[in-house]
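Readers of this paper often ask what the protein records in our data store actually look like. An entry from our holdings is shown next, in its original layout:
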Amino acid sequence: MKPQDTPSVRPIQILLIEDDLADIKLTKRALENERILNDIHVVRDGVEAMQFLRREEEYENVPRPDLILLDLNMPRKDGRETLHEIKTDPELKTIPVVVMTTSEDESDVSRSYLEHANSYITKPVDMEQFKHVVRVINAYWFSVVKLPSN
């Protein structure tokens, strides 16, 4: 087989929408430990997330994410508003969104699924449990599921 015949492998593009610095570091570390080729992009609130997704301002040349990891409780525009905006935008609604939050409130769970979240995960407080959750997300979304091509 010639080099031009081998399929090129591109990194999986992950957008992490999270305001808590400790959770950002933990998520990045857990994803790095999985040894799956990925690029993780981080924005700190829903306003920045929508600029990233619409490739506005400093995000003009960013790639389209293959998966979004979304926290609900953030400043400026929270994850609930952001999820609604993503899933009602014809250009963005096919991007899978995994809600990862500390909220165990049943109304948050219900509302997230009504807004077409693809998964809802309550963040564990224990670091090992958190790493396990990220491993499971990684295995499911990048080994089992067929994602739409960009």
In short: Residues 11-78+101-141 form a domain with the Rossmann fold fold (CATH 3.40.50.2300). The chain is about 40% helix and 15% strand. The chain has one domain: 11-78+101-141.
